[in-house]
Amino acid sequence: MFSNFKPTWMVDAIYKITPEQLQTHGIKAVLTDLDNTLIAWNNPEGTIELQQWLLTLKKAGIPVIVVSNNNEERVRYAVERFDIDFVARALKPLGKGIREGVRRLNLSKDEVVMVGDQIMTDVRAANRVGVRSILVKPIIDTDSWKTQFNRLCERQIMRYLQKKNPEMVWQGEIT
Ligand SMILES: [Mg+2]
C-alpha cells in the first residue's frame, strides 16, 4: 500500500544534490518542482545556496527543467531569472509534465530524476512515469488550506511508509 508514493531518495534540500552524486547513478538531467522545492513564495530570488547550485549544475552540463502545476505566466515569471526551461500545467500527480520534460531532454527515463517536496504530487507523478525521484523538505509552509490539508495526508502516508521501510530516512545526499 502507498508504494506509489515512495521516493527513491530523501534529501534535506535540493542544493545538497551534487553533480557527482547524480553521475554515480547515471543521471544526466534534473526535473524539479517549483514551489517550496526550488523557491519559497516569500523569496522569489531563491537563496544563495540555490543560485550557486544552479550554477554548479550548469557548469557540470546537467540541465534543469522546472515541472510545475502552476500556470504558464506564473512559472515563466518565477524561473526567467534563473535562465532554465520549464513545463507549466504539469498536472501532477499525472505524468504529463514529467513525460514532456523527459521528451525535451531527449534522454531515457533512467537518465533523469524528479525532485519535489510532495509525495502526493511530485513523487506520485515520477513513479507513474517510471522516473526516479528525490523528496526534499519543503522550504517553507504556505498558508493555503489546500496545501495544509495535503501536508496532513502526506504526513500520514510518510509515517506508514517509513514504518514499513526503515531505510526511508532524511539524508544529506543521494547514496
Ligand atoms: Mg512544491
From TrEMBL:
Molecular-function annotations in GO: phosphatidylglycerophosphatase activity
A Pfam entry, by short name: Hydrolase
Alphabetical list of InterPro entries matching this protein: HAD-like_sf, HAD-SF_hydro_IA, HAD-SF_hydro_IIIA, HAD_sf, PGPP1/Gep4
Domain of life: Bacteria
Xref: CDD domains: HAD_BsYqeG-like
NCBIfam families (UniProt xref): HAD-SF-IA-v1, HAD-SF-IIIA, YqeG_hyp_ppase
Protein's name in the database: HAD phosphatase, family IIIA
